[in-house]
Amino acid sequence: MSMEDPFFVVKGEVQKAVNTAQGLFQRWTELLQDPSTATREEIDWTTNELRNNLRSIEWDLEDLDETINILSVPFGPNRQIHKFLSSCLKHVHWAFPFITD
Across the chain, which distance is largest between two alpha carbons, in Å? Predict the structure, then answer.
């Protein structure tokens, strides 16, 4: 059994979800620009999938942000761990604007 850092596991999952959301967003934009190319069902499905995907990403990032903040308290004086957690937090905060706009 391998021990993987949970941050990198979640980061990978979020990255996959972001890639999926980008594809859904591209299709959703195409559908809105030329609605005659799709059925109402496809437009509704794409809209719902995109919305659900973005909510899921937002929740994952909020959970990760909360976990990082909790972990940073007991490791405050340890510079190496604090530096690592700060780096993780920077990645989380970097991703928020892409899913909340």
Answer: 60
Please state the separation of Cα 55 from the chain's center in Å. 9
Fill in the DSSP letter of residue 1: -
Task: Classify domain 6-100 at the CATH topology level.
Answer: Methane Monooxygenase Hydroxylase; Chain G, domain 1 (1.20.58)
Prediction pTM value = 0.65
- Domain boundary assignment for the chain: 6-100
The pLDDT tens digits for 65-78 are: 777 777 666 655 55
- Tokens standing for residue 12: 């990978």
Cα(9)–Cα(11) distance, rounded to whole angstroms? Answer: 5
Q: Specify the 3-state DSSP secondary structure of 2.
A: coil
Say if CB 24 and CB 43 are below 8 A apart. no
Please say whether the beta carbons of 89 and 63 come within 8 A. no
Pair of tokens at residue 51: 């919305």
DSSP state of 38: S
